[in-house]
Amino acid sequence: MMMLVTIHAVLTMEAAASSLMCRAEDHVYYHEQLGGCLNCEPCNPGEEQMDIQKWAASIPSGIFTIYGPTQCPTCITCREGYFNSERAFQCTRCKNCTLHNKHEVEQCSSISDAECDGVLIDKR
Ligand SMILES: *[C@@H]1O[C@H](CO)[C@@H](O)[C@H](O)[C@H]1NC(C)=O
């Protein structure tokens, strides 16, 4: 009987802990004072959230609690060939005008997509 009670208590605690887990993948972090998950802010234009594994390896392990990290992943500049023109967690791949048989009139930057002109290149 005592055994069953103990098992039940352990299972209940595990269920409580897992439902309280704040996952960086879900764009939330664990707020210690509130004892709950809060939303991360999206990154500024030109930036995206760092790869979560790389981020986790680059910061002090003290921020990781059993309820999840107490900080959000760092935002870094979009990779070459990617842009973020608004506030978002991820950069988007830039358009490739060549693949659409069009001339590029504006190069892709970290905050804006490439722009192609409307003229199809004659490939005959
Ligand atoms: C577009 O695609 C072509 C063909 O795959 C490639 O050679 C070129 O480097 C690409 N340009 C950009 C800007 O990604």
From TrEMBL:
Signal peptide (UniProt feature, chain positions): 1-17
Keyword Manganese: no
Keyword annotations of the record: Signal
Transmembrane segments: none
Domain TNFR-Cys, first and last residues per copy: 77-116
Stored PROSITE patterns: TNFR_NGFR_2
Residue windows of the TNFR-Cys repeats: 77-116
Presence of the UniProt keyword Signal in the record: yes
InterPro entries assigned: TNFR/NGFR_Cys_rich_reg (IPR001368)
UniProt-recorded name of the protein: TNFR-Cys domain-containing protein
